[in-house]
Amino acid sequence: MYEWLVEVHTASPHLFKALITGLLVTTVCSVIGCFIVLKRTSFLADALAHSMLAGVVVGYLFMKLAFGKEAHAPAMLIGSIVSGIITVAMIGFVSRFSRVKEDAVIGIMYTGIFAFGGVLVSLFSQYVHIDLLHFIVGQLIGVSDQDLWMMAIVSVVVLSFIVLMFRSLQLLTFDRVMAASLGMNVILLDYMLTTCTAMVVVTGVQVVGVIQVVGLLIAPAATAYLLCDRLKHMLWVSAMFGWTGFLAGYFLSEAYNVAPGAMIVVTLTAQFLLVFLVAPRYGLLADFQRRLKAIPQQVVEDILGVILRAQGEQCEIRDLVEHTEYKLEPIRKAVYSMVKKEWLCFEGDVISFTAEGRKHARRLLRAHRLWETYLQHLGVAEEELHERAHVLEHLHDEQAVDYLDDKLGHPLTDPHGAAIPEDFEHLVSGEVMTLAILREGHTGEVVSVGHLIVDPVSVGDRVSVGARENDSEIWVVTVEKPDGQFAKHRFNHEEADDISIRLD
């Protein structure tokens, strides 16, 4: 590698400088672009790239009018950084104190500041000698020694900042609230990251131009994002894609005699599209394959319901086809899928539950019968209860079903007189729960008593739940005191919710 670099430098010093500068700017753009992509501020990076024109012109004019120097790189760099910070500050201020959304504010501010830079160029055209064409498309081959050193310094500063502040930047990127709660100055970190981005944008413009530098910031990072789930891996993968895109794009531009900056970004875009197509977890083909293998949840749940209602909780595939609205193939796929999950088992042609499968089926049945009871309370006609509940039963999130059960007063039967399965998710020995969800035969120890309880029930008492009375609206409990005395108490729903029991 070293001999090849020496040979390139000897044969063409300009090519060597272009390659070194390009690799530097690609590395730093790819790394800092990861934070831009993860924070979803790609449009803000575009705003910084365009608004820097005003900073470049102001820096150029200041050195020209004050000191008589033209194209003073440090002054233009400082002007661009200040311009970027002003842009971000104005976007934040207007977004906070107006009803206009942030994306619209970004579009307004960056185009306004970019246009202001163009106005300055026109007004002071006798002093400003900036090649706007190269500003837009870059001038990789014409990189000077001063530009190379400036890029090297910026790369060292930005990469050092990222290494030293990695933990803080990682927390800021994924959870600003936690970062602030830990005492981090998130506003200062935001402005430091913005400053680094502005420095990278200014120096990157010399390589690929103001428009393509946004692609250099975003494309490698977005490509790495499709392959990585951890930030530290994403950083070096992004840099790798940046290097390969730059080198391939540069040599293609030489082969086809086109602008290097444009070809580099085209190559980076092609890399992204290729990875988007073939990425093993987040790629288009992987997603298509998952969709082919996916089995609708409703099919699974309807099959579980049919087996649960079958005689002996056993049936054959032809019975599933007969009692559902699905064809043979999706039912067969769903059954084989549940066999792999160990929800169902085959014995010859007979399908039956495993313990886990029966648990899922009972959860579905509980949701169905609770929805029927709820619909009856709403006044739905009895002949429509089953069909409507069949649609709603697929909304069986445990919290939602528990809420429905509590609002209905923990009913024991549905409108057709069938028993509603108990809340087996929470009825676990040793767990604390309210008396209201317990049923006949449950026993436990009282661990807390609310202010609604007027009967003499105390912490430490032993309770045994009996059959409910008054259409299941009254809980009947036999209480055993520590001294061995027994008493029977009755509670309504609200009172039963006010007593907590540790289940035996």
Protein described:
It contains 20 helices and 9 strands. The chain has helices spanning 2-11, 13-38, 42-67, 73-97, 102-123, 132-137, 145-164, 166-174, 176-181, 186-225, 231-256, 260-278, 284-293, 297-309, 317-323, 328-340, 355-377, 382-392, 398-407, 493-496; strands at 314-315, 344-347, 350-353, 432-434, 443-449, 462-465, 475-480, 486-491, 499-503. The strands form 2 sheets. The protein has a 6-stranded antiparallel beta sheet. The protein is elongated, with a radius of gyration of 35 Å. It is an alpha+beta fold and 504 residues long. Among the domains are: 2-209, ABC transporter involved in vitamin B12 uptake, BtuC (Orthogonal Bundle), CATH 1.10.3470; 297-353, Arc Repressor Mutant, subunit A (Orthogonal Bundle), CATH 1.10.10.10; 432-503, SH3 type barrels, CATH 2.30.30.90. Strand 7 (475-480) and strand 8 (486-491) form a beta hairpin.
SSE ordering: HHHHHHHHHHHHHHEHHEEHHHEEEEEHE
Report how far the terminal alpha carbons are from each other. 73 Å
Q: Major sheet, described briefly? A: 6 strands, antiparallel
Supply the helix-strand structural class: alpha+beta
Shape: elongated
Q: Mean pLDDT score, rounded? A: 80
The number of helical elements comes to: 20
Helix content: 55-70%
Largest beta sheet: what is the strand line-up?
4-9-5-6-7-8
